[in-house]
Specification:
By secondary structure, this protein is mostly helical. It is built from one helix and no strands. The chain has a domain of 35 residues.
């Protein structure tokens, strides 16, 4: 019975770990996407300013 209980605990522990990892990756991807959008906006603004100077 101990082996079954231990296996069940390990399975829940592993499942929780994967859920936490997925949540962390989701946050990271959103932050990365936000950074990319900011960089893109900055580049567009710089290109527009350069166009007005010419």
């Amino acid at each position: 019975m101990f082996v079954v209980e231990t296996w069940s605990f390990r399975r829940k522990e592993t499942s929780t770990w994967f859920q936490e990892k997925a949540a962390i990756l989701e946050v990271y991807e959103k932050e990365d996407l936000s950074a990319q959008v900011r960089t893109l906006k900055k580049r567009v603004k710089e290109a527009e300013e350069e166009q007005y100077r010419v």
